[in-house]
Amino acid sequence: MIILGIDPGSITTGYAFLDTGENCPKVLEYGVFHASESKPLEDRLLHIITELEKLLDKYRPEALSMEGVFFYKNPKSALVLGHIRGAVLVACRRRGMTYNEYPPTVVKQAVTGTGNAPKELVANMIFARLGIERGDLPLDASDALAIAWTHANPAPMAAALAGSTKKKSSVASRKKKATTKQWMDLIEKMGGTIQ
């Protein structure tokens, strides 16, 4: 099975194609799609998806694994990231790919053994696990490799998810969920309308 790992970003989106093969995953290609920060969001989206579709047609992956959403202090950044994630998901789903997402802490734990590992450690570990030389690419590329590797290796990922669930339940008991009114206020602040 060929897996596509995506680390979404509005300027730099990391990608990685892994072939699970017979014994261990083999890296087919990895890198970043870089969109000019000076361009409007819709042009950046078009650039990222156009480049991604070329590679989707080349490698024909069966599964998409993407980094899950995590809390952003800036709601506008979260919305922009949502656009990128949605566009990637649509492009992949049109090709019949399955979809899985993994929280950053689960990916870090699956790759390194600890959920709070710095990005540099994740990069070093994923290159070692895959037996490839570290390149000069941004950490978004190694993050995409780590996300694809996590999907290809269910045992460490399952252990990481089990640990993440325990932590979430204890944190959830201390945090309040946002009310409908709070969400409506946020949407209005962002310039949206509620019908």
Q: Give the proportion of residues in helices.
A: 40-55%
Question: Which class in CATH terms?
Answer: Alpha Beta
Rg over CA atoms, rounded to whole Å, is 17 Å
CATH superfamily: Ribonuclease H-like superfamily/Ribonuclease H
Shape: globular
Helix count equals 7
Give the number of DSSP strands.
Answer: 5
Q: Largest sheet, if any?
A: 5 strands, mixed
Q: Please indicate the count of domains.
A: 1
Main sheet strand line-up: 3-2-1-4-5
User: What's the CATH architecture name?
Assistant: 2-Layer Sandwich
Distance between the termini: 44 Å
Helix and strand content put the structural class at alpha/beta
What is the CATH fold-level name?
A: Nucleotidyltransferase, domain 5
Q: Name the beta content range.
A: 15-25%
What does this structure look like?
The model is unreliable at 169-175 (pLDDT under 50). Helix 3 crosses helix 6. Helices cover 52% and strands 17% of the residues. It is α/β, with parallel strands linked by helices. A five-stranded mixed β-sheet has the order 3-2-1-4-5. It contains seven helices and five strands. The protein has helices at residues 41-59, 75-93, 104-112, 119-130, 139-152, 154-172, 180-189; strands spanning 2-7, 12-19, 26-34, 63-67, 98-102. The chain has one domain (2-169): Nucleotidyltransferase, domain 5.
